[in-house]
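Human: I hope this is not a bother. Would you mind checking the protein record under this note? Thank you for your patience.
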Amino acid sequence: MKDLVIGDCHFGIKTNSIFWLNKQIKFFDEVVIKTIKTENIDRIIFLGDLTDVRYSINQYVGIELKRLVNRIADTGKRIIFVAGNHDYYSPIEEYVDYNSYEMLFGDEFIKQHPNVTFVTKDPLLEDGSLFLPWYWTENPEHFDDMLYRYNIKHDVDAIYCHADLTCWPGPRIASIHGKPIYSGHIHYIVDDPVCNLHNVGAAFAFTFNDVNQDRFIYIMEDNKIVKKIKNEISPKFVRIVNKDIFKDDDSLYDNAYVQLIVSSNNINKSEYVDRIKFLKNKYVDSNVRVHIIDSEYEIDNANIKGINSNIGKYIEDNIPKNLNDKYLYIKEKIKN
């Protein structure tokens, strides 16, 4: 079985931005559909959050998205959509029928395209792959019911779902018997080969939370990733720090939103002032912005220490009580 796995798409992102919609559709038309045909894909798997706005779908976005899904379905390949939290109109499960798939597609679409399945209510076990919609990964009772329904050890080869795998407790992971789990929901890539947990990341970069990170879709054979196809069509988010702003690398600014991070002791130096002016004039289309910080800092994939330095305390003071245990668990897991 050769699969094409696609993470979160969030059609309708940026307040239904037509610019973003066009970039996303271009990526699907020029990369995804081409890959389906040239790589002889058997099955296309969407890992949730096809749409962005939970409570409504913009008419134009909905029409273009439905046309796009029609084009993908017309390839004749098996297509499975796993519903994510953004695809439901309410976090309350009794309203599970109110979701973007029902609204956009409905029964007539399924009749026209029997090769398409929307997994919104109950899990789907097909060809050794178990597909779990968001409600079934968030609700412990549902998860236990899933373990009762299916013989994970003998009948399931892999699980595809929409969940934050980083916060799964040890007993839940143990119940999967080491079977690979591929999930959407977390927009950056998180890979835990020891426990065989894989958050594949979103198919698109959306904000500066995605800074300096590439985005991919994945070709899989026998439930293992064999090829990553980089998204080079939608905009990327780039953060360039202090002396790095003097690097002459046009690729950093091409099709990108760019932050120039300069410490306060450098910002008044003439060489920095001249360089910033040059970059902002040369890369007008890159939306170059300058951020100044007052202290020395370190950078990882998405965070700058020194900016919003009290954010940890702010979170701890304001996090809802019902989420506090989950927050402390994840915080301790990351720390260790």
